[in-house]
Amino acid sequence: ETGVTQTPRHLVMGMTNKKSLKCEQHLGHNAMYWYKQSAKKPLELMFVYNFKEQTENNSVPSRFSPECPNSSHLFLHLHTLQPEDSALYLCASSQEGFYGYTFGSGTRLTVV
Amino acid sequence: DQQVKQNSPSLSVQEGRISILNCDYTNSMFDYFLWYKKYPAEGPTFLISISSIKDKNEDGRFTVFLNKSAKHLSLHIVPSQPGDSAVYFCAASAGTGGGADGLTFGKGTHLIIQP
Question: Which residues of chain A, if any, have pLDDT below 50?
Fold first, then answer.
């Protein structure tokens, strides 16, 4: 499979649950990103991983915990989320020196 | 405070005419600008970009113009086609040459092409 794949596509979780979002890319890119898209807001950068090292944490609450075990996989671990965290979470990847990110289709998260 | 602004939430254009989508930015450190297109239930896809050393970049029906003094860029689509109906995001980077810095996005403009 090519491109950036995100699973699950949809997730409903309670505020006390723990869940994880998964992102996988088979493009040979060395940078991966998590973005959040809330209704009527711009895409917000959450985390940047460059060569598996986290290079940016954009003031994201600790209830969101990223993990990048290798340059092809990226996880976002979720725990004790709030209803306002309901949003579309997008993963993207890019190659160093090229700005054309490739995005996944996103995970639509609803916190109840 | 939004650093990348797309002030038109939606735009309706007749098929065959020109679509012009606008974007303003406030951060003078931005040196690379991109447009992404997003269909429902899909992730954004890269469309076209421009470096701050240029004022125009063209790719087929798509042209991006950059006015650095006004901190303004625009995307022109001509002629507009029904498949162009989508949400268009403007994005900017203050990177130093690589892409792994994270992009700053606008809220998007929903372009609707009328038959």
Answer: 1
CA-nearest residue to B88 within chain A is A42
Phi/psi of residue A83, nearest 5 degrees: -55, -30
CB contact under 8 A, B49 and A101: no
Residue A56 touches partner B, C-beta closer than 8 Å: yes
Place of tokens 């650093």: B3
d(CA B88, CA B105): 10
Which whole number is the average pLDDT over B82-100? 80
B101·A58 Cβ contact <8 A: no
Question: Are B88 and B35 in contact, with CB atoms under 8 Å apart?
Answer: yes
Question: Any residues with CB less than 8 A from the CB of A110 and at least 6 apart, and which?
Answer: A10, A11, A12, A13, A86
For B111, the enclosing helix (H) or strand (E) is: strand B109-114
Quickly state the pLDDT bin for B98 (edges 50, 70, 90): very low
